[in-house]
Structure formats: C-alpha cells, structure tokens
Amino acid sequence: MTTLYLVRHGEVYNPEGIIYGRLPGYGLSDRGRRQLAAAAEILAKEGAIVALYSSPLQRARESAAIIGAHLGLPVEIADSLIETGIEGYQGKSFAELPSPYITEAPDHEGIECAASIRARLLAWTAAACQRHAGQRFVAVSHRDPIAVVLLHWQGRGLADLPAYPLPPGGVHRIDFAGEQVQVTPLS
C-alpha cells in the first residue's frame, strides 16, 4: 500500500481579509504555525515518511518547513500543488467571488475549473505514487485543490465543495491499494 498525506497549509496572516490567491507575501500567522506543529505531531505518529512536497506559495512552503523540521525531511517544491487560479479576484474581498466560484466549466468567471485542478493533482499524485510505491509521503497544498481531489476519490460531486471539512492545518491520509483508494481525515 502507498500512502499520501495531504495537508492544508496553516492559517494565513491576512489582516486586510482579501483574496490572496497566488499573490506573493502571504505567510503563516502565529496560529497557522501552531496548526502546522500539531499536523507534524499527527504525521510523526503515522510511521516512516520518505518525502515531503509543497506548493510553491509562501504559506505552503512555511507549513512544509515546519513539518520537515519535525520529521527531518527536506521540502521539494511541486508546482502542481499550487492554489486555484483566481487571478481576476486577487486583492478583492471574498464577497466579490461568484457563487459557486469553482465549477466544471472552463474559465468560469476567470477562475480555474475543477477539471483543471483535478487533472493536475491526479497527474502529480500518480507520478508521486509511482516514485514512492509502498511508502508514505506528504504533500502540502491549499484548501480547494485538496478538497477537489478528495471529493473525486470519495466519489462525491462538486456541490459538496463549499462545506467540505478541511480546516487550516488539516491532514488527510489517502491509502492507495491497487484500484482501491481510501480517504481518512486525521484532523
């Protein structure tokens, strides 16, 4: 069995309360660092982990660094783990996002569609599972990309995305055994 742990980055320091998307300069808050220390503790109890990957964005890299320090692992950047593309809404208030903001339709309101998010995460996961067959590895990403792929593996629809339980610092274990995929929330 091959096991992937998907970890959502910790709470972001965002005093303006804006949509930061892929904007640079948005790192973890003090609370976010505590959330990732707790996530690292959960991961440490899971057994030997051989690799740690992160989205290239600052908040994910900082989150992965906390996990890496705790587990003694270097962080490898994986561009496919990046946040959903929402360029036209970056810097605006969350109230300006359309509802729903992620759909299956390509370029809906200038927002990356679920099919694109799913395709890049599934392709990355397949390659990583091949590289780490029979082992455990961790990927730090963002709420929506993680939730989109978890919904896929659970056979659930995009309508469940807004309420999907994935708090900052949340950890999900995904076990791959042949064609079987088992998703288990750990926090």
Task: Tag the structure with descriptive keywords.
187 residues; alpha/beta; Rossmann fold; 6-stranded mixed beta sheet; 6 strands; 31% helix; globular
Low-confidence stretches: none
CATH architecture: 3-Layer(aba) Sandwich
Please state the structural category. alpha/beta
What does the average pLDDT come to? 96
Can you tell me the CATH class? Alpha Beta
Integer-rounded radius of gyration: 16 Å
Helix content: 25-40%
Distance between the termini: 21 Å
Shape: globular
Number of helices: 4
| Order of helix and strand elements from N to C terminus | EHEHEHEHEE
Number of strands: 6
Count of the separate structural domains: 1
Q: What amount of the residues lies in strands?
A: 15-25%
Strand order of the largest sheet: 3-2-4-1-5-6
CATH fold category name: Rossmann fold
Largest sheet, in brief, is: 6 strands, mixed
Give the CATH H-level superfamily.
Phosphoglycerate mutase-like
What does this molecule look like?
This protein is of the alpha/beta class. The chain has one domain: Phosphoglycerate mutase-like (Rossmann fold, 3-Layer(aba) Sandwich), CATH 3.40.50.1240. Helices cover 31% and strands 18% of the residues. It has a 6-stranded mixed sheet with strand order 3-2-4-1-5-6, sandwiched between helices. β2, α2 and β3 form a beta-alpha-beta unit. The longest helix is centred in the middle third of the chain and has 18 residues.
